[in-house]
Amino acid sequence: MAWSRYQLGLAALMLLTGSINTLAAKWADNFSAAGCGGTEEHPFQHPFLQAVGMFLGEFSCLGVFYLLVWRDRRRPEPSMAPAQPFNPLLFLPPALCDMTGTSLMYVALNMTSASSFQMLRGSVIIFTGLLSVAFLGRRLELSQWLGILVTIVGLVVVGLADLHSSHDQKHKLSEVITGDLLIIMAQVIVAIQMVLEEKFVYKHDVHPLRAVGTEGFFGFTILALLLVPMYYIPAGSFSGNPRRTLEDALDAFCQIGHQPLITVALLGNISSIAFFNYAGISVTKEISATTRMVLDSLRTLVIWAVSLALGWEAFHGLEILGFGVLLAGAALYNGLHQPLLARLPWHGEGSSGVAEREGLLRGDGVAINGES
User: Fold this and answer.
1) CA pair distance 309, 303, nearest whole angstrom
2) Are 301 and 29 in contact (CB under 8 A)?
3) Residue 369's pLDDT is what?
4) DSSP β-bridge partners for residue 43
5) 75 - beta bridge partners?
6) Exposure pattern of 246-255 as b/e (b: 16+ CB <10 Å)?
7) Which residues of 206-242 are buried (b: 16+ CB within 10 A; e: fewer)?
8) Residues 21 and 273 sit within 8 Å (Cβ to Cβ)
9) Cβ(357)–Cβ(364) under 8 Å?
10) What is the pLDDT of residues 228-242, one digit of tens each?
11) Backbone CA torsion sign across 240, 241, 243, 249
């Protein structure tokens, strides 16, 4: 069945904004500018402030949700179901996981390449699968266990590519290893977020945009308040600002004043996360969850290609191999191989569509916040 122009537009929007999100964050990291009080020029390394911006983008999804509700109520026959009452505090634990995982990933992005950052995020499949077995009582199919094993192999290949390419990049080998480990650690927290959402949130039938916006509200409020004590907490060499504190938001604003293009990068990050969540939810609704997963994998390729074109990283064949293996692992885990098997002459027809949908439901490791 051919896609309509609207569906093509949604798919393109999801792929574009999902790619811009990581690229804009890395672009901001690549800038250098003078800070406050006449401090010399230094790299823009403010991961926690960037995480606050990302949650601001999620928070804006609440405005989109209420705009859709307002437009729907003006129609002669409203199509949206009335909002069911729920306790917003249900979203607090997932939001805390989202806040911690996102902050770790932005710290890691300062230490490794954008393509490796995006590829290593595929490790969330491993932890989501294991935690769903342990805490949700889910039974994984053989293809899902194979998907987890293939993903582990893909992570090893990507890690080897990072070790090989560390000689060509501005990052030290120790930084690359630390960054990669932080990304994988963050995926453990993201997997916990997914389990919490499935166990306590999904059963309340909250509109996805409202759910994203509510988590964004909690993440934005809490992390913005935490910027105050972070301004005074010493971090030593782990910090990227002249005062050597965990985060120096004032230094970030001074750097933005000296280099206005940083504002463009930050606004690109904030706006792209909002559009990406909207597009991802719409793709799932208008096309399929399968398409959303495929597009989410393709943006890794886009990020890698753009990073190469801009000279942010050097070409290494191991990255192509790693990407291919990770893609195969994701396909196996999410049941994307079943439509292909259904076309084989010895495979029974009839049950293939149902099997595909059930496989996706059991393997759909998509958090309410589709960027996590």
Assistant:
1) 10
2) no
3) 62
4) 32
5) none
6) bbbbebbebb
7) bbbbbbbbbbbbbbbeebbebbeebbeeeeeeebbbe
8) yes
9) no
10) 999 999 988 778 889
11) negative
**pLDDT tier at 7 (50, 70, 90 boundaries)?**
confident
Cα–Cα distance measured from residue 315 to residue 307, given in angstroms and rounded to the nearest whole number: 10
Pick 92 or 37 by higher pLDDT. 92
How many whole angstroms separate alpha carbon 281 and alpha carbon 289? 9
Closest CA to 367 of 105, 125, 139: 125
CA distances from 314 to 161, 174, 256, 323 (A): 11, 18, 28, 15
Structure token digits, residue 142: 């053989």
- Tens-place pLDDT, residues 295-348: 887 888 899 999 989 988 888 888 889 989 998 998 888 877 676 666 656 554
Tokens representing 276 are: 């990406």
Check: CB of residue 58 under 8 Å from CB of residue 215.
Answer: yes
Q: What share of the chain is helix, strand, coil (3-state, %, to 5)?
A: 75, 0, 25
DSSP symbol at 246: S
pTM listed for this prediction? 0.85
Higher pLDDT, 261 or 339: 261
